[in-house]
Amino acid sequence: MPLAGPAGRIGEGLDQALPYLTELILTNNSLVELGDLDPLASLKSLTYPSILRNPVTNKKHYRLYVTYKVPQVRVLDFQKVKLKERQEAEKMFKGKRGAQLAKDIARRSKTFNPGAGLPTDKKKGGPSPGDVEAIKNAIAGLPWWRRGNASTLAEVERLKGLLQSGQIPGRERRSGPTDDGEEDTEEDTVTNGS
């Protein structure tokens, strides 16, 4: 069954929907983390999975992890799973250290679950209070800005372009001459120490 777009995760409860599934081709999808493959473990008759051309196939211990999680697999990515591979997977993920290793590398991709709350630990986006003040001053045209006010359409469009590019009006660096043609220079004053 072809998908409309690349799959980023495998749904839970797949064993109930497809209990006798033996072959599963997930080639050219967006499976990223080894933990994204965990739902395959519930498919007790799965013997021929293909996960080629997914970012997860580049992860360390990918084949061993799949062999450990889906022990009945015979062929993975069109390559036979050898007895040596099975033994290595069993050895790697056996015991407390193995369980901890499996837990560490079985991280799952972050996906949105309908009905779940939104994460609240994100930083508030947008400009800082100082940036907001600089934007207000630029629009109001205070004298320190020395470029007049934003009363013309061209000036409003220029300010809009600056804001969209992430620059704060009045805080951009001025390199070169000012509006009246004079360059900003500082004169060194030498005081006579007599």
Automatic annotation (TrEMBL):
Name assigned to this protein: U2 small nuclear ribonucleoprotein A'-like
Principal location listed in the UniProt entry: nucleus
GO molecular function: U2 snRNA binding
Record's compositionally biased regions (Acidic residues): 179-194
Family assignment from sequence similarity: Belongs to the U2 small nuclear ribonucleoprotein A family.
Organism lineage: Eukaryota, Metazoa, Chordata, Craniata, Vertebrata
UniProt feature coiled coil, ranges: none
BP GO annotations: mRNA splicing, via spliceosome
